[in-house]
Every structure is written in C-alpha cells, then in structure tokens.
Amino acid sequence: MSAPSIVAENLTKRYGSFTALSNLNLKIEGSKCVGFLGPNGAGKTTTLKIFTDMIRASEGRALINGVDVHLNKKKALGSVGALIESPEVYPALTPREALSMVADLRGLPRAEAKKKIEETVAEVKMNEWLDKKVGKFSKGMKQRINIAAALLSDPEVIMLDEPTTGLDPRGQSEVRDIVKDLKKKNRLVFMSSHLLNEVQEICDEVAMIDHGKLIVYDTLSNVTTRFSSGGSNTVDIEFSRDIDEQSANRNIASLTNVSSVDRIDARKVRIHFSGGIQNQERLLLDLATMKIGMISFRPAASALEDTYLNLIKDTL
Amino acid sequence: MTQPASPNLADMKERVLPSGVSQVGTITKYELVNYFRSRRFFVLLIIGLIISGLLTALVGYYRPSSFLASPLSFYSSWWAGPMGSITFVIVLSGIFYGGDAISGEFQNKTGYFLVANPLRRSSIYIGKWLGALIASIIMLGVFAAITIGNGIYYFGLNIPNQLWESLLFAVLYLIAVLGFTFFFSSLFKSTSMSILVTAILFLFAFNLIQTLVERLVKIEAWFMITYGAQIITNVLIDPYPTTMTQGFGRDAFTSYAATIPEGIAILLAYFVVTAVLGLFLFERREFT
Fold it and tell me: Is the entire prediction scored with pTM above 0.90?
C-alpha cells in the first residue's frame, strides 16, 4: 500500500492580472504533519482550495494519492478530510444531523456512522451540544463541529486551513492534541496556520509561501537550522527597576555565553547568547544570582518565528 | 484527550463511496430537514392557507355564479382566482425555495461545508433542486387539497378529469419555475439579489412583457414561460380556448392561447435550458 501523498505540479492561480499562486511545486508524502506558512494573501488558502476543488487552477495539477482533484474529485477526495475557511453548517441542523449528512455522503455504514459521530463530537468536546441546532452556536463551537466533520471518516489525508481560528486557548490546545494524535495514527496532515508556535509544536515539516511562490519546504529542524539567524538564542529580560546602559553592557554582557546585549528601554534588555537550552538555563541562573531586579525572562522568538521573519520580509 | 480507535488504513482505503444517485438522495433529505425546520416553510404555508382561506370565505359568503355554475367552472375559477392563485402559489414556492438555494451556499458559506467532500457539484445541485421541488409540491398539495375539499363541499365527488390534468401541468410549471430560479440563484452570489431578480421577473416582468408582446407587437408570446403556463387554467375551460381575433384593422385585438402541446413544450424547454445553464454555472463558480 502506498503512503498518502499530496502533490502540486506547477500549480498556478490567476485572478485577472493578479497571480495568487505561481508555479507551486510541492510533493508531500508519508504520515506526518506539514505546516503551511505565509503572510496574509500569500496563497495558502488558494492552494488548499485548489486541492479540494473549491477553485480551479489556472495551470498545473493538484494530485492527492496520485489522483487529479479536478478531473476526478470524488475519487481524489474520498480519502481526504478538509476544513477550509471556517464553513457554516445549515443553522437548522443539529451537529448529529450535519455529521450524519457527511457520513452518508462518505458512505459510512449506519452503525459505524452513529458511533463515529459520537466519538468525534466527544473528541472536540461538543457532546453536550450534539442535538442542539447549530444556528445558536458560537464561532468557536461551529469550528469544533467543522473539525469533527473533517475527521469523521478517518481520512488518511487531512487538510486544515487555520483550524484554530475562533477557538479559545483551551480549544486551540485541544486541536493541537488532535493533530498530534492523527500523526500517531499514520495520517498525513497538511495545515495552514498563522500561529508559528503551533506549527513548531506539532509539525514535522514546514512549507513557506510568499506572494504565491514556495520559498522553502523541508523538515522543521532543517529549515530553522538553515534560515534562522539564531533567534532561538535570544531572551528578553524585564527588570523591576531601571537599568543603566553601563550595567547592561558590562555586567550582563560579561556573563558566560552572552554574545551581545541590546537595551530595549530602561527596564528591558534583549540578550543574545550562544549554545542551547543548557546555556539558557545557565544564563537564567546567572542573572538571578546578580540580583539586579529581574522579574521576567522569556525567549524573544522561537526558531521558527525567527526563520519566518528572515524569509518573509513583508506582509501583503 | 482520548482518541477513538481508528480502522486500519487498508480497510479505510477499501471503503466504497456512495453512488451519485445516493449522494443526491442525501442532499435532498437534509435539504428537506433544513426547509421544514426553517421559518420560510411555515411562512409560505401560512400564505397558502391565507389565500385558500380567503377564497373559501368569499365563495362561501357571496356564492358567485361563476364559481358555482358547474364543477369545471368552480375549479377553473378557483385555480385562476382573482390573481391566478395557483400560479401565484407556484411562483412563491419557486422564490422561497429556489431563490437563494445556490447563492446561499456561497453567501452563507454553507457550501464550504459540502463542497470539500467527495461528491460532484452536480449531486449538490440536483439534490437541492429535488429538495425544493418536494417542499414546493407539498405546498401545492396543501393548496390543491383545500381546493378539492371546497369542490367536494359544493359538488360532491364529481371531480372533472381536467382538474388532474391541470394539476399535472401545475407540477410541470413548478418544475420549470424551479429550474429558472435555480439558474438565477447560480448566477448571483448574493442571496438578496437572486431572490429579488426572481421575484421581479415572475411576479411582474414576465406578465408585463407577455402583455406588451401580445397587445403592441401583436405576436404570440411563445417564448414566455408565463404563456406556456396558461395551459394550467385553460385546460379547465370548456371548450379549450383558441387564438381569436376580435375587431378589424388597427383596432383588431388578438387573444392568444397556447395549445396543450405548445404549453408543455414551452415549460419543458424552459426547464431543460435553465437547468443546464444553472448546473453549468454552479460547476464553474468558484468558492473564492
């Protein structure tokens, strides 16, 4: 049995003179989670919409498990669960009915469908609302039902377009857990997101797109190693009292592994240091020992955020 | 967070998707559930009941001779009504159920829930169309039942065969109207625009154009859907009306009447053309 795959071949989408997607070539294969990153208008949702035949490519092909989505949508999407742009469920239906409709459309046997609906609704923590009309739901509750619909048929390929949109922090965390579990179940997850920490936490690989063009696609560690300027080794420190330029430059900069210190304002500095997590721990200890009124110590940016900011210079 | 046990990947790949016909049935089923739970179904039902109730009360109180002369004249007068009651009910059904059937999928984003599933867009279109047809037929059935109930009250079980023919033509007109409204619904992404255009066309424009064509241009309006729909009431007139010219020269006035084959052909042509165009538009339209 071949591994699940998503392939974009010279995928291009034009709206008049505006090119939303330009010759995207991407081959994702195997069981993993791939984060799809880029600024607003970069072409992330356009790509996902082409893969679900919601829009047509101007040029190129979108293949899922080797099947062209546009030429044989039914077969191509048979093994795909997708959540694109926070859809609305018919307001007069209950989650049970809406999910039964999806189960019927996907050919789940009745008994299995009933069980799966209850399981997936429980998974998105909506079991208490199973028989209430969707029209009364909040945006976050609707999004949970949409996620349940995407997962209902146990698809081997899952496409998620900013799945945590509209969810509260707990909901976002739950979605991250769901995606992590999908990886364990040998699924291929292709997920666009603006939340870099989310992608860093759950994805194995990352594809970055800007102005419709793919900038990089590689494993998360390769991407951050190749393109990060060391952002992972930067911490922001906050003090309870003013700290002068001299103390910052002399005392802090002289600490082991510290390469430079930037004074952000009277009570904040940014420290760049070398090494990994052990050195970060050592730095925290050293600063605490100095007793200079440190009240906050946090990484300035994640490696992925640093990489993202290096690769994507501006926002549309 | 616990995960449900999942079937293994091999089993999953072997799952057979339902046929297109089966998926059409699913869409129709849930479209009907959505209709029956919505306010619009009851609003339309109330409108139908008000029209029927008014006619019942007026005929019962005034007992007009045009209604009570014979069973045929009763059904003819009731069907045609002061404002073409049967066609009015059909057009209202078309507007209520078809006006935003497709445009709503775009504007309300409900289409995003459906389209990303493994089914053809034609299955969605046909399923929704069938849902609208069934809901409209229920409405038509309620109106017809009240009509026949009144007829039985005045004339007993002496129901003329022409009434059943008329009812069949009414269903055919309903099919054509829904084909047309779905076409306009596919044309616009805004629900209010598609409903408004459909309402203006069917409630005013078509009748106006037909009158102008017949009176001023003095040609048979064979290309108008409303002209074809005349067979619904004409079949209840004995003898069946024919095209007649009254007066002479410039003052001559011709009243045109579609024959039954002509009427059927016009209604079928409207349905086929608008259904094909509407489906084509929906297939092409992008969920941007």
Answer: no
